[in-house]
Protein: thioredoxin-dependent peroxiredoxin
Amino acid sequence: MPEVGKKVPKLKGPTGDGGELKLDSLKGQWVVVYFYPKDSTPGCTNEAKDFRDLYPAFQKRNTQIIGVSRDSVKSHANFATKQELPFPLVSDPDETWCQAFDVIHEKVLYGKRHMGVVRSSFLIDPEGRLAQEWRNVKVPGHAQAVLDAIPAK
Structure:
């Protein structure tokens, strides 16, 4: 698990648009990696829309956004198209990204315990180091809080 101030792991994964994203290929810009439980669920949809709506402001701050969940590439493609998402969604069915950022934890849903993705976001600086992290995220206002953490040019 990366610590604030330390380099993040070199990760790659398939994206909903049929490509492959390599995290270390984004050096030189800020990167937001946000982990969410499931495509097309209410909270995850609202979070994606919030990042989408603020995307032009993130771009002005030289920032790339990446969404990550365990959903399939096909699910990501449908979700991104339906919600008009301008940023890539990485499919992580083997939990490589999730484990690297330590976002898989026991959760309780309707009284049942299961292992799931804890909604979390990570801000990576242009040198590839973790600048800030948010764990157990509540969706309302979160995308704006992440944007506010990135220095304006």
Notes: The mean pLDDT is 93. Strands lie at 12-14, 20-22, 30-35, 63-69, 89-91, 104-109, 112-117, 120-124, 130-135.
